[in-house]
Amino acid sequence: MAELSPIENVVFEAMKELGATNEEKKKTADDIAKKCNRPKSMVNNALVSLLQKGSVKRVAREKAAGYYIVA
Fold first, then answer.
1. What is the spatial distance between Cα 32 and Cα 36, in angstroms, rounded to a whole number?
2. Which one of 27, 36, 37, 43 is least enclosed by Cβ atoms within 10 Å?
3. Residue 21 forms beta bridges with which residues?
4. Per-domain residue ranges of the chain
5. Nearest to residue 29, comparing CAs of 51, 44, 50?
6. Assessment of whether the complete model's pTM goes beyond 0.90
7. Burial class for 63, CB neighbours closer than 10 Å (0-12, 13-18, 19+)
8. Contacts of 2 (CB under 8 A, 6+ apart)
9. CATH number for the 6-69 domain, one of 1.10.10.10, 1.10.150.320, 3.30.360.10, 1.10.357.10?
10. Mean pLDDT computed over 25-50
């Protein structure tokens, strides 16, 4: 897995704790932001970076996109 920045690491660990490990268990950026107690904008930036590194996947939905860990 690619080297993660401190905020990416916090977001990744929060996703693991939330159990966002497959498409059926995906979580929104709001869920993740609440879990790691960081601003949603910061979490969104980290999620975009994690997407580019291939560590998480994004699933577009009607309201909010869902994210889950693939690595």
1. 6
2. 37
3. none
4. 6-69
5. 44
6. yes
7. exposed
8. 53, 54, 55
9. 1.10.10.10
10. 97
Average pLDDT, whole number, for the chain?
Answer: 94
Rounded (10°) angle between helices 6-18 and 29-36: 110
Are 12 and 4 in contact by the 8 Å Cβ rule? The answer is yes
Question: What distance lies between CA 47 and its chain's CA centroid?
Answer: 5
The tokens for 19 are 């159990």
Residue whose token pair is 């993740």? 32
pLDDT band for position 71 (cuts 50, 70, 90):
low
Structure token pair of residue 25: 């268990």
Contacts of 36 (CB under 8 A, 6+ apart): 10, 11, 13, 14, 43
User: Average pLDDT in the 33-51 region?
Assistant: 97
